[in-house]
Design brief:
It holds the Pfam family CTE_SPB4. The chain has 708 residues and is of the alpha/beta class. The protein has 24 helices and 19 strands. Strands 6-7-5-8-9-4-10-12 form an eight-stranded mixed beta sheet, with helices on both faces.
């Protein structure tokens, strides 16, 4: 049989006519050959040819067409198994209406000087000379004369208004004027309770400066995380002004015999609302009751807070006696030079109508928010940090608040690896010389102290932290507060942004919101907090310049991005590659993802309509942690909140975690342990039950054998 002739340009195929099981495979082999030809992988010669093309493109900048082909390749040397697009399947960004808000305002400076008060001349010269504090703030001008008269006081003022000196100055003035002179062997004459260790250190440093002219007054500090033995040694030597966190103070009151409380004449409860948030109300009440039992003289008590909640009022009624209320907030439309006069509370120390729903914020603080889908959050944060690091201003430092300790660890590590000169792809001189810090409650106390001190003295840098740094800390030259994870209540928002715009300086605050969370802007507006919107696209545009500089520094000019999408995608690839190639980073990213979802599920009930786990697309959330794993492969999340119902879509419902075969709820098993038992004999009861079962089974076998 003669085969038909073929055209010259037609591929020559090895076609056989041999039959197999009575069927011809000519057509199947033809299709297979075509598929093999189309899907043929590049050979070694092809790879060599591509390398030659790249060398030609670097040497000849006029060959633009070939350069465009190379640009589309990833900017990383590693290989990712898969990469999903950042700019597809994102929720629409809703438009947010501009809500008119009449902000509440405090006059920061009073115009009066410390020299106008009846203070010791050495203290005035110390304030105006070494401490460079000539003019009093409004809260100082109102609080110091009241406390010098010996009255109890409840002080409400915005963060960064100088509340520490408002009680520290009259306290030191009182101790230095006592006769006979205060001696360190007498023990504490004043106790200052603060919520966090960092605030304890900061308050201690303030007192150290203030008692400079009065060397016989000794301040001291005790707090959790330090060795009790060394603290007991300091207490035995003698401390006159004792600054302490509540848990450690109660521990020493109970167990340290050398701590004598009978001479305590001052009790200061600073950041009272934060103390309540951390669950210290019972501890503080125990401390107050011990001081009531042991005091030999009338005690003067001061309670300070940026907000006056019902819990703070309750604490005031428990510890204060006929206090003077000092609250200098007022609407912006009022005369800024006028401040409200102090008014006395009711007989029980609590004025039920005094709980304020409005918060005062500094005039020099500008509030902004940006709506970013979860897939774009990480690159948006990186873009913002890069853009602000290139600005040269007085306040160059930035504080980024996150919801969990694992999230702090992850973002600090990955952004330091990818954005700074420690990245393997970034060479020195690339411009990414950002210094990054981290601070959270799970760090060792020595490390926390060092980070706090290093960040205070640094000229620039980014601090990633939890709410451990949200209250009372005076961090100098902080220009931006970034709330990457949304705070819970408006009170938390106020305290976070209070780390900037302190004592009249200018500051900015940026709040990251998911498209489903934009109603939170209305929540803040109800508390007289006005936010303006920052466009996400404007934020991402800064990546064009940053990525171009990186490519030039690495001699990869041909990889420069042409669009914002390419720049963001290139950066996200580097984030995901950093996680993918490092086992420790993968583990850290998973823990951060898990802790974020759990924290998201713990928002207050009145905010559940805005912040609810069902609104989260867990796959997109995983992308924001540079994870390529599906949420079902990340342990501890889907099992906790239940599987998504694929028919209803992501975030639209959850299946029951466990059900009976009939579809009802799982049965509750009764415990064999008495409610009055110690619980230690539970294992014994279970083991006895198992033993009895074995004995019964053995007896049945013996009876059956006997019957046979």
């Amino acid at each position: 049989m003669q085969l038909p002739t073929m055209a010259e340009d037609e591929p020559v195929l090895n076609i056989t006519t041999e039959a197999f099981s009575g069927r011809s495979k000519t057509k199947s082999k033809l299709n297979r050959s075509e598929r093999m030809r189309k899907n043929r992988q590049p050979t070694e010669n092809d790879t060599k040819q591509q390398r030659d093309i790249k060398d030609d493109e670097r040497s000849d900048s006029k060959q633009t067409n070939k350069t465009r082909k190379i640009t589309s390749q990833p900017a990383t040397t590693g290989h990712l198994p898969s990469f999903s697009s950042l700019f597809t399947n994102n929720p629409d960004i809703p438009s947010v209406q501009n809500i008119p808000v009449q902000q509440v305002k405090e006059a920061m400076f009073s115009g009066n000087r410390f020299a106008d008060l009846k203070l010791h001349p050495y203290m005035v010269s110390n304030l105006e000379g070494k401490m460079e504090l000539a003019e009093m703030t409004s809260v100082q001008q109102k609080a110091i004369p009241v406390l010098l008269q010996g009255c109890d006081a409840m002080v409400k003022s915005q963060t960064g208004s100088g509340k520490t000196l408002s009680y520290a100055v009259p306290l030191v003035q009182d101790l230095q004027a006592r006769t006979p002179r205060v001696c360190r062997d007498h023990g504490p004459y004043a106790i200052v309770i603060v919520p966090t260790r960092e605030l304890a250190l900061q308050s201690y440093e303030t007192f150290q400066k203030l008692v400079g002219p009065f060397s016989w007054i000794v301040p001291g500090c005790i707090m959790g995380g330090e060795k009790r033995k060394s603290e007991k040694a300091r207490l035995r030597k003698g401390i006159n002004i004792l600054i302490a966190t509540p848990g450690r103070l109660l521990d020493h009151i109970t167990n340290t015999k050398s701590l004598e409380m009978s001479r305590v004449g001052w009790l200061v409860i600073d950041e009272a609302d934060r103390l309540l948030d951390l669950g210290f109300e019972k501890v503080v009440s125990q401390i107050v009751s011990v001081m009531e039992e042991t005091r030999e003289r009338q005690r003067q008590t001061v309670l300070l807070s940026a907000t006056l909640s019902a819990g703070v009022e309750r604490l005031a009624g428990m510890s204060l006696h006929d206090p003077v209320r000092i609250d200098i907030t007022q609407p912006l439309s009022h005369d800024t030079g006028h401040v409200t006069e102090p008014e006395h509370c009711s007989d029980n120390g609590v004025n039920k109508d005094s709980v304020s729903a409005n918060f005062a914020v500094p005039e020099t603080l500008q509030h902004q928010f940006v709506v970013v889908p979860h897939k774009l959050r990480l690159v948006s944060l990186a873009a913002f940090i890069l853009s602000k690091s290139q600005e040269h201003s007085e306040n160059q430092k930035m504080v980024v608040f996150l919801s969990t300790q694992h999230s702090v660890e992850f973002h600090h590590t990955i952004l330091e690896n990818v954005l700074t000169d420690t990245d393997s792809e970034t060479t020195p001189g690339s411009g990414h010389d950002i210094v990054m810090f981290k601070l959270h409650g799970d760090m060792l106390q020595k490390e926390r102290t060092k980070v706090f001190q290093d960040f205070c003295v640094a000229k620039s840098g980014v601090l990633f932290c939890t709410d451990v740094a949200a209250r009372g800390l005076d961090l100098p030259n902080v220009g931006w507060i970034v709330q990457y994870n949304t705070p819970g209540t408006a009170t938390d928002y106020i305290h976070r942004v209070g780390r900037t715009a302190r004592i009249g300086s200018r500051g900015h605050a940026l709040l990251f919101l998911n498209p489903s969370e934009v109603k939170y802007v209305q929540v803040l507006a109800e508390y007289k907090i006005k936010l303006t919107e920052m466009a996400m696209n404007d934020l991402l545009k800064t990546l064009m310049l940053s990525e171009a500089k990186r490519c030039l520094a690495n001699k990869q000019k041909y990889l420069r991005p042409r669009t914002v999408e390419e720049a963001a995608t290139s950066l996200q690839r580097r984030f995901e590659l950093n996680v993918h190639e490092n086992k420790d980073m993968r583990s850290l990213a998973r823990k951060a993802f898990q802790s974020f979802v759990r924290a998201y599920a713990a928002y207050p009930s009145h905010l559940k309509s805005i912040f609810h786990v069902k609104h989260l697309h867990l796959g997109h959330v995983a992308k924001s942690f540079a994870l390529q794993d599906a949420p079902t492969h990340i342990g501890g999340i889907v099992g906790k909140f239940g599987k998504m119902d694929s028919k209803r879509g992501a975030g639209q419902g959850r299946k029951r975690l466990s059900t009976t075969p009939s579809g009802g709820p799982p049965k509750k098993h009764k415990s064999n342990v008495s409610e009055f038992a110690s619980g230690l004999d539970e294992v014994t009861s279970k083991s006895l039950t198992g033993r009895r079962k074995k004995q019964k089974a053995g007896n049945k076998k013996m009876k059956a054998a006997a019957q046979r």
